[in-house]
Design brief:
Length: about 375
């Protein structure tokens, strides 16, 4: 029985084949040697499957020498249609930093030791470990995207081949009621056109990037609800009721077409995420508030106040749009009212014991 073209048996009995991974002769070519003990039938099946996979890629421009810069460009091209503008800018900054270091390296030549060296260099530059971990996440995402596309045959940075940097538990910093009042008064003084945006940011418990992306099409005023896209959750959405002060805030704004931005500046241009972030720090400092407060603290504030008011964690999870309850548990330490009975019961027994001991001592 004649072997398939491109497939041959070596003198030691192993089977080997060569093929163009892009399904075209102008693309990269690889050589695959199958393990000892592979039968002719198994080798034929493996070869046919590999050729079929390559044929399915035909037409995709796969660089002959796939560098990390090529992979990063492909990754960003995909993400540009998925991420909010503010988020995309942050991702591009991280990816560009990675490209400056790994750009000319072949993706398949990357090694776990490269990641370890990158981690060490960033920490030596006084970058927080949590930030470095986030950057490495994008490095892996780029590599695994081209792996999923079939542009490389193996993952050069497999799971478990290096460790994440250890980081302390994230601190949940939120506004005290009087601090939020001071912040909003200073905001009213400095940029009154931003007041609706920041009030909605708190009432919706959303991220700045999510808020800046809201259009009038996101709001169902008759049905009393708002649908908020969540780019960080791969395009999922959360839907919240439009009630109370939130309805008042939205109702006070000039209504626009469905595609028009809801939160606009005094000149009519939409607020974007970066502008709101810069304004936050300006107002915080002008109001003399804690430096620990940051834009995401507004989202923490919404969750913390809700928990302190007795709202169940599951409801808080849905309001925040968390993927699972473990992300919301960080606020559980604020939920103490349900423990009042236990504390009082211990106190009652403790008092009873002291009274009983005193009576015994007198006898």
């Amino acid at each position: 029985m004649k072997a398939s073209p491109g497939l041959r048996q070596l003198s030691d009995g192993r089977w080997r084949f060569r093929m163009y991974t892009a399904g075209r002769k102008d693309g990269p070519r690889v050589q695959v040697t199958l393990p000892k003990g592979t039968t002719r039938t198994e080798a034929e099946a493996t070869y046919r499957a590999a050729v079929a996979k390559a044929a399915a890629r035909r037409g995709r421009p796969i660089p002959r020498r796939l560098t990390f810069a090529d992979a990063a460009a492909e990754y960003l091209g995909i993400q540009r249609g998925r991420l909010a503008p503010g988020t995309l800018v942050n991702v591009e900054n991280i990816v560009n930093r990675l490209v400056s270091l790994f750009g000319e390296r072949r993706v398949e030549d990357l090694r776990p030791s490269d990641v370890v060296a990158y981690q060490a260099a960033r920490v030596a530059a006084d970058v927080m470990p949590s930030t470095v971990n986030g950057e490495v996440v994008y490095l892996l995402a780029i590599v695994r995207k081209v792996l999923a596309l079939g542009w490389i045959e193996r993952d050069p940075l497999p799971r478990g081949s290096f460790d994440r940097l250890s980081t302390p538990a994230p601190e949940t910093v939120f506004f005290r009621a009087e601090e939020w009042g001071a912040f909003m008064r200073k905001l009213e003084e400095l940029r009154p056109d931003a007041v609706p945006a920041f009030r909605a940011l708190l009432l919706l418990a959303c991220r700045i990037g999510e808020l800046s992306g809201l259009t009038w099409g996101s709001f169902d005023l008759e049905g009393g609800r708002v649908t908020i896209p969540q780019p960080k959750r791969r395009g999922r959405v959360k839907t919240l009721p439009l009630a109370g002060e939130l309805r008042e805030v939205i109702g006070s704004l000039p209504r626009g077409l469905p595609a028009a931005s809801v939160f606009i500046r005094e000149d009519g241009s939409p607020w974007d995420g970066r502008q709101l972030q810069r304004l936050f720090y300006r107002v915080r400092d002008a109001a003399g508030l804690r430096k620990a407060l940051h834009p995401h603290s507004i989202r923490h504030t919404a969750a913390s106040w809700a928990v302190q008011s007795g709202v169940p964690l599951l409801s808080v999870k849905e309001t925040l749009g968390h993927a699972n309850i473990s992300q919301t548990v960080r606020y559980s330490h604020l939920e103490t009212e349900h423990l009042r009975g236990a504390v009082e019961a211990v106190s009652t027994v403790e008092k009873s014991g002291r009274r009983h001991r005193g009576a015994t001592d007198r006898g």
